[in-house]
Fold these 4 entries.
Entry 1:
Amino acid sequence: MAEGNRTEVFVYEQVVILISCALSFLGSLLIIITYIIWADLRTTPRKLLVFMSVADLLSAISYSFGVWKIFDEDSLDCIVQGAISTFANTSSFFWTVAIAIYLYIFIVRSSQRVADSLVLYFHLVSWGVPLGITVAALCLHKIGYDASEVSVGWCWVSIKAEDHVLWMLLTGKIWELLAYVMLPVLYLLIKHHIHRAHAALSEYRPILASSPMSNSVTSMADRKLTLIPIIFIFLRIWSTVRFILMLVDSPARQNPVLVTLHGVGNTFQGAANCIMFVLCTQPVRVRLANFLCCRGQARARGAESQRNDGPDTPSHAEDNGTHRWLDKD
């Protein structure tokens, strides 16, 4: 490909995408930390979310390096960055679908035993397949500089490879397209099952059905089941659009707005997960707020004690041990 066809990445695009990478890094880290420090919130779906967050964390780091450097040729650091982002990004696709499959079997099929038995297979597929594809691409020298044709400064599949379209499909696009189909179908089936179950419960237990708390929890779960596939598709669709435009050799793939949306969409997944599953999940949000408030109060008491030259008398925080927080959406 001639150098003149290279997609230019402007400074403002770099800044926006680097901010997105930072937010995704922090969001993924927060998901992992909250899982570690609060044992009673360690449900299996949240454990799967942690594994996906590890992949999103790697993606954010590798993409930020590529966006910051803006590669313009094949080099060792370009290949390393491209390999890490290829592995992490593909793994994130698999973990996203794995969570949907787990919830479908657990909720619709009402079989926690079967759902839990799949976790080992989720690991084998979600780590093993991306690793195998990435190693094969490395061994065959398919990863390298791609002139930002379907990236935003970072390296992916070398544009010089004659079969680069095939390897773009294998290292990401085919799994992305499958996720576009599988996620809406699985979450629609889950939503339909929940609505039927809630309708049957309402018929026989009208008091519970009219409870504000019951309606609130059901409404929040319904919104999340709707938003998960919508947010995934909204974030990822821009890279798919640029891939299609590249296939038809359209100059529209270099449009700065489209390039920026592609960069943010590819790097914001960790932040989006944090918003949905930490900030918008009441048990985790309340725990996090209490933790931050307690730390702030402890620092304030310590400062006051030093000013008064007196002993720091600890106050007894409210005992939350009697509340068994469930990871409800």
Note: The mean pLDDT is 84.
Entry 2:
Amino acid sequence: MAQGNLSVVLHAQGDLRLVGDRPQTCYLLHGTIKVLLQMHSVGICGSDVHYWQHGRIGDFVVTKPMVLGHEASGRVVKVGSAVKHLKEGDRVAIEPGVPREMDEFFKNGRYNLSPTIFFCATPPDDGNLCQYYKHSANFCYKLPDNVTFEEGALIEPLSVGIHACRRGGVTLGSTVLICGAGPIGLVCLLVAKAMGASQVVITDLSTERLTMAKELGADFQLTVKRENGPQQLAKSVEDMLGAQPHITIECTGVESSIQTAIYSTRSGGVVVLVGLGSEMATVPLINAAVREVDIRGVFRYCNTWPMAIAMLASGKVNVKPLVTHRFPLEQAVQAFETTRQGLGIKVMLKCDKNDQKP
């Protein structure tokens, strides 16, 4: 094992570096429930790029150098003595959020809401875009032989889709509107169809992304033009479906899109807010209130990795087409620039120079 641990480190806003001498994380596992992983595939998320470009997301501010990356998979190279369910050589997907304490949110199964949770690549916690990484074994999930490392890394965004569809109550026969056909909108589409949605409409400004959505199973694609008003778009959605959708999943965070989501959803339905935009937004709240349209937030996910692995292993969900670009870890800055420019769908970094396969 090399003496260094090549890592992608954000030093400050706009200052992204590939650092080769960060200390390895493979020390003193004895007596712990941690595992050391040789990282294999790590996807670049919009939040990684946002931290790079802006140095913060909301109240989370980069104040010291931070390793990026949280969509990840790897191979176990060392286990702590308390670890019973994993062994050296196991291929695993990593859930990046680990509760630090057994608080009320942990106890009631909503540990993603714990205010003290550790989360990869959210200040001040380091992420896992590096060659070697230490993580809680309880939040590493063994991958079946027919699930690739890249699919394992994509479980993180897929989990956002699972959590959003659960929050929205997607079930057999549901009609669903998804606002935004970026990576998160596309995984919401995949999950909604797998959970039994009968018809899904997806919107976006980009015809290329809508083409991908059609290939992934969207029943209707609606190209948004900047001059379209929210109520006009809502009418277009209703015309496509023949009725207003039961559930709308908003994945852009754009104020006008949130307005469209509320106007579009049928009375008694649900709007799920996934996308994060401005702290304050003007929305037709009274319209939602008098029609009993529930508005539900989403913050990451919880208890999703087992379902995601089952979906992938069974073939019910296929996330492979989402990966459009691959780079070796040594070309991380180029990979981040590709993501920043909005090229393709998902950019994947390959951290093991001896194994660049998916």
Note: The CA atoms of residues 159 and 303 lie 9 Å apart.
Entry 3:
Amino acid sequence: MTTLEDRTAATPSSVTDEQTATGSTRTVGHGRLRSLRSPRHPRLWFEILLIALSYWLYSLVRNAVPEQKAAALRNADWIWSLEHAVGLAFEETFNQAVNSVTWLIVSMNYYYATLHFVVTIGVLIWLFRRHPGRYAASRLILFATTAVALLGYYLFPLAPPRLMNGGGFIDTVMVHQTWGSMASGNFKHMSNQYAAMPSMHIGWSLWCGLTVFALASAPWARILGLLYPTATLVVIVATANHFWLDAVGGMACLMFGYAVSYAWYGSLPHRLPKRVRPTGGRGRPRFPFRGRRAAVPVSSAAARAASPADPAPARPVPPGSA
């Protein structure tokens, strides 16, 4: 028969087991979160698929934003008036001056059309190969920057300077008949014409430049990293595709991207380890160390069940019985 004392003694054990199980669940949950937030070795097939899918969604959403022509032109007039008010409305003069040098403006048209993608993809490949431990954090900056830019396109439609009514701006792609901006010439119906704020040419180029400057070891590469976004700013203004204030919007989006990455990884990319150990499925090392086995926590009830019963006390041996 089970006495009341036996029942009372057994009760704390079940409560302890329950607390242990709850604690183990919380530990597993925190462990999984830490695993997700820890830098890991990128997988090539996953990254190609992710980048392709992300850019497709970005283009789809960007072009799905209604082309609010009237509002975009009003906003362009407002931006232009604001720049006049602060004494920095230099885009029109600069656009006309550079347009007079044919070889220079044609080169800028091709720069605007190609390097925006080529350099960004090149930096991603360089990170993947040389800095795999910093790749995911840097990629998150780029993705968050691009995502928040979509909000700007929706909330603040803006016509580029070359589409302003009654302005003296020159659409350099149309004038020189060069293959250039997706928003000019034969490609103008494939892209939203009024998504100039913020400038992702500046957002992406500045991401590339800062990444190379922070991680490259060669001095010439670090200098090129700083020159690239500077040259991009010159190009977007000279080709009348953006106001300089659009560049400020691109910088603000990039700051948001850095904040998101820092909040998730707890550090800036250049402070993370350069290389991490490749992992297999479920985050386990692909080549685990041998000779050690991880301790598996068991509940107190299971431990009591697995432990042998207490040995019976030895009986005293009467003298002379041996």
Note: Residues 69-271 form one domain.
Entry 4:
Amino acid sequence: MKKKVISMLLCISMVAALAAGCSQGSKKSDSSEAKKEGGRKFGYTCMDGTNPFFVTIEDEMRKKVEENGDELISVDPANDVSLQIQQVEDLISQGIDAMFLNPAEAEGILPALDALKEAGIPIVNFDTEVADMSYVTSYVGSDNYNAGKVCGEDLVKKLPDGGKIIVLDSPTMNSVVDRTNGFLDAIEGKGFEVVAQQDARGNLEKAMGIAEDLLQAHPDVVAIFGGNDPTALGALAAANAAGLKDCLIYGVDGSPDIKAELASGKSLIEGTGAQSPVDIADKSVEVMYMVLDKKKVEDRYPVETFLITADNVKEFGTDGWQ
């Protein structure tokens, strides 16, 4: 009888142990499942984190990523491609699952692209193309050629007799190169003479300094084209300091600051080839999640650009980006 009781107790003990084991296994499975639902790490880098255009893109990307329970780790190389490469390598060491990348230099960023490829990390390249697009999974960006072209077309319409102009570009930024080409193509054969074309690196202070020097040498220019809005605003500060009254200044972005100048009705800013950083950010995040979910994506996703002037700026407002 005693043996039977002991045998029954042993059986009960074994059953309890098995039940506990199953319970722990179930908890572990639940925890694993929860991890699958979130916890991805996304890297983010852009050429200049202080540029309001990129600030808006980063903020919008972060909002979208965090809505999915994921994390966006951002770095700012401040237009230094060597630093950008180091920062990307650091992001890889932090175990990122994917990379949103806007290069400080289209060619110079190659070592970072090699490192990402070796680590098997997908890249969504946004706003400015890298030189070798074979590294990236997809590209999301504005129709930059058209953004410059609409500015040039507007200039031709307003100054049909042509004149001397200054172009402030940035040869290492493919987006600005495309904008400049669009602008120059639009004014070709229309009586305009480019008396100076210099690299302002998309930076307001640098553009202001360059424009100050150029306007001393060429005070009779009728227009200035800047490769982005900060460049145009730098040129504006220089033109105002030089006392110019009849110089038409164009930028590209459609930033709140440039729209405020247009809305004032008393600025030398004449127009901007507008783009939407919000749309670029949203599409980039959408495409990246498609990539991670093993869905087919296109090589390129162009985002519309258009001209904003004093005539239509009220349609877009001056408090934020379109």
Note: The longest strand covers residues 192-199.
